[in-house]
Amino acid sequence: MATASNSRSSNSAPPGHTPARRTPTNSSYYDFNGVPYHEKNPNSATWMYARDARAQQAGLPPGRQPGRKYPSPFGNGEKLALTTPGSALSPDGPTQWLHHPLIPGTTTTCTGKGRKHLGGVRSVYTANDPNTFDVMYHNRNAGLSANGNGNFEMSKYHPAAEGQGRP
Q: How sure is the predictor about 108, in pLDDT bands with cuts at 50, 70 and 90?
């Protein structure tokens, strides 16, 4: 089921690879538009269950954690249409948006310990409310950031098929 929106990012997968589509489904999920979660593994997940993202976010305390890389400030240089309230960093103001890795296929909050590569999926949320968040992912096909990562794109949220379970 190819559409104009997923044909653009299908170039991130090897030739002949077509990511599986998950609609309709009995569970809500976030779609990375065919972009593999782990850029070094083209067969890695291109979506994650919304319940897993919620469970991982529930394990985050509000605000930044001293001595840890994540959660870290998010400046929204890509000008994403975030639904979470907040604003980008300003030199003289408080950090309002934070971002944190999300790992498809688990409900455990990522601590970064013991992981060589965190993948490219992140939650973004207002510093004082990790339970209200958007999901985004790095996409090298959308350009590169100053530090060489793919620019962020928003994940598309797909609700559970009506009458098929909990969203």
A: very high
Buried b (16+ CB within 10 A) or exposed e, 54-90: eebbeebeeeeeeeeebbeebebebeeebebebeeee
d(C-alpha 118, C-alpha 28), whole Å? 23
Q: Which residues lie closer than 8 Å to 5 by C-beta, 6 or more apart? A: 33
Distance, CA of 136 to CA of 51 (rounded, Å):
16
Coil/strand/helix, residue 137: strand
pLDDT in tens, 57-85: 999 987 888 888 889 888 888 889 998 87
User: What's the domain range around 140?
Assistant: 52-158
In a domain, 99, yes or no: yes
Q: Which helix (H) or strand (E) segment is 124 a member of? A: strand 121-126
Evaluated on CA atoms 98, 87, 104, 63, the torsion sign reads positive
- R_g over Cα of the chain: 16
- Residue 17, in any domain of the structure: no
Which of 125, 166, 140 shows the shortest CA–CA distance to 33? 140
pTM: 0.77
**Residue 89: band (very low, low, confident or very high) from pLDDT cuts 50, 70, 90:** low
CATH code where residue 110 lies: 3.10.450
